[in-house]
Design brief:
The structure holds two protein chains of two kinds. By secondary structure, chain A is α/β, with parallel strands linked by helices. Chain A folds into two domains: 9-16 and 87-293, von Willebrand factor, type A domain (Rossmann fold, 3-Layer(aba) Sandwich), CATH 3.40.50.410; 36-85, no CATH class. Chain A contains nine helices and ten strands. Chain A has helices at 14-20, 67-73, 107-124, 149-158, 169-179, 196-208, 221-225, 247-271, 285-293, and strands at residues 36-55, 77-85, 88-94, 128-134, 140-145, 185-190, 212-219, 232-236, 242-245, 275-280. A six-stranded mixed beta sheet of chain A has the order 5-4-3-6-7-10, sandwiched between helices. Chain A has a two-stranded antiparallel sheet with strand order 1-2. In chain A, strand 3, helix 3 (107-124) and strand 4 (128-134) form a beta-alpha-beta unit. The radius of gyration of chain A is 23 Å and the shape is elongated. The mean pLDDT of chain A is 82. Chain B is of the alpha/beta class. Chain B folds into five domains: 2-84 and 621-638, no CATH class; 93-237 and 588-614, 3-Layer(aba) Sandwich (Rossmann fold), CATH 3.40.50.410; 239-324, Immunoglobulin-like (Sandwich); 338-529, Class I glutamine amidotransferase (GATase) domain (Rossmann fold, 3-Layer(aba) Sandwich), CATH 3.40.50; 532-580, no CATH class. Chain B is 26% helix and 26% strand. Chain B has 14 helices and 33 strands. In chain B, the strands form seven sheets. An eight-stranded mixed beta sheet of chain B has the order 18-17-19-20-26-25-24-22, with helices on both faces. A six-stranded mixed beta sheet of chain B has the order 6-5-4-7-8-31, sandwiched between helices. In chain B, strand 11 (271-278) and strand 12 form a beta hairpin. The radius of gyration of chain B is 39 Å and the shape is elongated. Classes of the chains: A alpha/beta, B alpha/beta. Chains A and B meet through helix 7, strand 8, strand 9, helix 8 and strand 10 of A and strand 2, helix 2 and strand 33 of B.
Chain lengths: 302, 656
Amino acid sequence: MARRRKNYFHYVDQDSLSRISGEPLLTPFPMEGSVSGHHRSPHKGSSVEFAEYREYTPGEDPKRMDWRVFARTDRYYLKEFEAETNLRSHFALDCSGSMGFGDPKSKLEFGKTLVSTLSYLYVGQGDAVGLHTLRRRNPQVLPAKRNPSQIQEILEVLGPVKPKGDTFLAPALHEIAETVRMRAMIFVVSDMLDEPSEILDAILHLRDRKHEVVLFHLFDRQELEFDFDRPTRFVDLEGGGSLITEPTVIREEYLARLDEHVEELRKGCMESQARYHVVRTDKPLVDAIDQFSAGRIGGKAA
Amino acid sequence: MTFLQPLALFGLLLALAPIIIHLLNLLRHRTQAWAATRFLLQARKSSSRVSKLKRWLTLLFRVLALGALAFMLSRPMTGGDSLFSLSKGSPEALILVLDRSASMETRTETDPRTKREIALEAFQSFAKPWPESRLVVIDSALREPFFIDDAASVKDPSLSRYFGPTDTAADLPATLIKAIEWLNDTGVGTAEILLASDMQASNWELDGNSDAFVRINRELKEKEDFWKLILLQLDDTPPYNLNLAFEQVNRKPKSVEPVLNLSRKGTGSERVLFSTNTNGKPGNLEVDLSSRSTLWRPSFQLEDEPDEGWISILSPDDFCLSDNVGYLIYGATEPPKVAVRSQHPRVSLILRSASQTEDGDLADSLPAGSLDLKDLGIRRILAHQGKFDAEDDATLQRFVNSGGTLVLFPPDSPDSSGFSFLSWEAREEKKDDDFFYVNAWRKDSGLLANSSDGNRLPLDKLDIRIRRVPVQGEPIAYYSDGKPFLTSLTMGKGVIYSFSTLPLDDWSGLANGYVLVPALQRLIEESSSSNTFIQSWACGGKETRDAILTDFESMTGGKDPSLEAGVYRVEGRLTAVNRPREENEAQFLKAGMIGGKLPGITPRIMDGENVSESTDRTEVWSFFLILCLVLLLGEAFLGQPALASKPDTQATSTNA
């Protein structure tokens, strides 16, 4: 008897789909795809988008020669068009123990929804989507595919994932940079609880490989506000022990450190032309999608 | 450091409350799973120095604030020069216990001020260093606390009722107790009690006030560190003083003949001119004062004067004005009606003869039969001897109760024991040459007092063979075996005198007259001098204090019979108010003798010219109040959040 498959389709946010539906999500960077698509390619191709005129060099295919220009100028010119190809997007979801924090929804659950929804959108516009679950042990990788069934594959991987282990973000991103050969769009969904410098190194590594990098930095409301008023024993979700402290005493310093961390990442991302989004998990997902899709919908991406 | 409310020190345990709450809070912490532990660790690490210091300082401030509060409530006392003392050791109250007796109006040759004025000025000087202290005056005349805002008020003429001269005596132990009671009632912490007195012995009565001194000693000993007693000794004696006092007033049909005791201190003029005033008519009388103490018997003719009136006698100014004047009143003369009732004819004759008037009229004789109250209605004195019946008993009681004087002699029949109100013992008789003798009697006053020239009555020469000793009454004279020879018994408004023997030859030598005649004549004279429509009171006595509650009219300008001597008409009765006789006494104590009566404490002794502050302890609760407030402010300041800007991460943000 065939094993009944679980339905994880609830991870695809319907509100976000309604908001974006019908409009392609574009990337400002040229992408190397295997088939024709909505995204700019670094190569010249046969699309309807005119690119430039170039003098004919003997040996080239005479079919691409513009005879009208020859008639007017008696010289041989080739008319070149923009190649439009599909996009390869890879979602890197942090699955460390710290991602299990959050109320009413953990950061991991929010991340799953975000990845699922964007995957659905990209597959829907013909782009290839891949998945990397970032953890020290047993990371899972789904190669990028444009097959519609890829959504189901992604959901099958995401659904059972539990937060566990310590953060393994920077090494995992380096690994992605090494393994993903073709230009792609790398989505990093994480709480970024790693050294900012290491994260930024990994991002630079990705950028060196011509990938577009988008960071979704997830925060729970309590992490941002830290509004505890009683002595509290904080137990580290990644096994780092516990800490008893008076939150009112350290609140200011905590928030300052948090702000420092965010600012460092923001600045590093700006320098390396990566996109950086701070996302609150208590807000609707569509807010994060809106932020991400601004300038990417419709015509050419900015 | 000592404490007025030491029980409040248990409140120091409250100071542990912040520590206990802190520990409890640590115990009742909640557990929170947390992701961003790295920021917590960083925050704690970087804030550990300042915030730890702030936290511990906050805890310390809370503990100290509660400790200061507990200290404040326990009302600590410390030395006046202590660092804790914010003020200059001000006692809560400064109390002047002021002797306002007549003798305090004495001056000295070098100082024109009276002792009372010196005392008031000394109090002013005494209070000057402590303007914050409450000022209270309790004087011997009113014995009520009087509060003043400014020490200079003691010189305010409009307050002379409270600080001015009086003609009263003083009971200083009672006045001091009043001050202590007030301190206790009002819960005063620290006080300086300045007792200003001329130390006249009669105002202290050291022997009679033992209980009062025990109480004063106990109370002041309990508050030894907080209530200080300072004796302001004003015992300078005047260089010259002449005081006059009425010893006796004899009313004659057309004159008044008072007997005055003139006492002189120091050297002065031997011939003294007294000013007199008879019902408002001035006059003068000159007296030759050859000795320090003289009995003076002036005579004031009253031919042109009303039947009832007053006379004042004023001696020339000296160093004490308050004892220079005396007032007397006189009423209509009415020869005393004396009657004699005896079964024995000879006794009747002897008694009638002994009680004859100045004009030689014998006393009336009442029949031995049934006694009618009508017969007694006009009588003032009844000498009675012999049998009686039950009706006589009741009649005589009514006579005495209404103000009559009854002189009783024992019945000669052995079967009669006496009246219901007075009885005699059985008859005792001496044989042969043996007699009963009288060896002790009251010589200073009464029927058997010495004569005005000091000669005593020859009671010890009286041979008594038969006696029947009266059972009731206060003995006036005693036999050698201790039994009473003569007793007096007050009943209602009258008096009963009871002799123990009869003026018969076989009973005693009483019939000789040298005892019986003076005794009866003094009774008659006393009766004629007294008049139910005139009265004489001591200034400051209970009668005068009651009088100010009723209608009274001053005849000599005095305003208050309880404070000023003079002649007043109180409820229609003419009343002479003179300063109490004890104020004429010239015996003064030394302040050390008062200190000797208060062994538990050591009162400071100062004189009027050398008054200084003495409080060496003061309450310092205000210091702890300020400390508590400062600590609470510090705690609030430490609890203020730093003005750091919150990170701009509240909403979704992005950068391109």
